[in-house]
Structure formats: C-alpha cells, structure tokens
C-alpha cells in the first residue's frame, strides 16, 4: 500500500480482531446509534463474533470494510470507521464513522481517522467518490465532513423515522479531484 498511511500521531486504523467483540457489542447494541445504523434490536454475541470472523474478507467480495479507530498513544479503542456499499463499477463508496464515547467526541479523533480513510479510499482503492448520509440536525458531523470538502448534494425529506417523527437526511459527496 505505497502512499497509504493508516496511522498518524493521534490515531491508527486497524482491522477487527476477536478481542474487539465486547467493544463491538457495546457500540452496536447502544440504542443511541440505532437511528443511524437502522438497527431495531440488539445483536447477539454469536452474530457479532461471526461478523468479526468474516471481517478479513476483501472489500471487493463483501462490499464493505470496517476499521477500528484507536488512540495512537495508549492504543485504546475509540470508535469505528466503515466503508459500505462499495461499488467498484461506479467508483464510489459510502462512509460512516462513530466515536463511541461522548467524552471522546470533539477531540479530533474523528477528523484524524477521516483524513486517513479518505487517503486510503482515493489512493489505495483508487475510487472517484465517497458519500455520507447525515441527519440534518447533526451539526458536528456536517462540520466534520464539510471541513474535508464534502459537499451537500441533496436532502432526503422525512427519510429516517425516530419514534413518531420523521427526520430529513442529507447526502454529502467528496469527489476525488486527482
């Protein structure tokens, strides 16, 4: 992977390991994130361990890839950054990021991880574009992705249901200018 760094002074990205089961369970089974992931019930240990077991598969096979975001200093797990809906024919991929603990948000970890994954997508996977879906009320995420040049290309009205409310979701894209 010449030219591709999956680490910097603040964070590093690594593949899922069997030792990540508890952390994965804490994040995936946290109802705070269910509105984004469209999860409607908790995942079992078995289901999550099967997911980890298959996570080594190539993105060209399974059309997705998950990285663990770790603090470079003390190696703590901070969150996940996901590539999904990988579409090599149209040269694009969806991206999602979650910083698990609210106390770690706003500290630059997401920004550092996003910088690394953008470099990976454009230089290693050689894709033309990355897209993200963001609830229009999620100002921190909008600011984060806008900082990296993601542009608003549309709003899906009443797209996400939360309880008895429907929320708008924005679509942002980053086109590889190289």
Kindly describe this structure.
With 178 residues, the chain is of the alpha+beta class. It contains six helices and seven strands, in the order βααααβββαβαββ. A seven-stranded mixed β-sheet has the order 1-2-3-4-5-7-6. α1 (21-28) crosses α3. It is globular and about 40 Å long.
Kindly report how far apart the N and C termini lie. 18 Å
β-strand percent reads 25-35%
Can you give the helix content as a percent range? 25-40%
Shape annotation:
globular
Whole-angstrom Rg: 16 Å
- Give a count of the beta strands, DSSP E runs of length 2 or more: 7
Please identify the structural class as seen in this structure.
alpha+beta
The description of the largest β-sheet is: 7 strands, mixed
SSE succession:
EHHHHEEEHEHEE
The chain-level mean pLDDT equals: 92
Q: Runs with pLDDT <50, length 5+?
A: none
Which strand order do you get reading across the main beta sheet?
1-2-3-4-5-7-6
- What is the helix tally? 6
């Amino acid at each position: 992977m010449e030219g591709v760094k999956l680490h910097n002074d603040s964070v590093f990205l690594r593949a899922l390991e069997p030792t990540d089961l508890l952390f994965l369970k804490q994040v995936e089974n946290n109802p705070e994130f269910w509105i984004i992931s469209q999860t409607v019930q908790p995942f079992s240990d078995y289901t999550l361990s099967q997911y980890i077991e298959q996570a080594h598969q190539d993105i060209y096979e399974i059309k997705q890839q998950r990285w663990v975001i770790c603090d470079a200093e003390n190696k703590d797990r901070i969150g996940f950054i996901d590539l999904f809906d990988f579409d090599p024919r149209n040269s694009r991929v969806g991206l999602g990021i979650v910083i698990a603990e609210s106390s770690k948000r706003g500290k630059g970890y997401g920004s550092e991880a996003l910088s690394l994954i953008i470099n990976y997508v454009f230089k290693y996977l050689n894709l033309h574009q990355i897209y993200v879906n963001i609830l229009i009320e999620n100002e921190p995420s909008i600011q984060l992705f806008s900082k990296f040049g993601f542009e608003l290309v549309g709003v899906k009205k009443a797209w996400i249901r939360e309880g008895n409310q429907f929320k708008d979701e924005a679509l942002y894209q980053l086109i590889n200018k190289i």
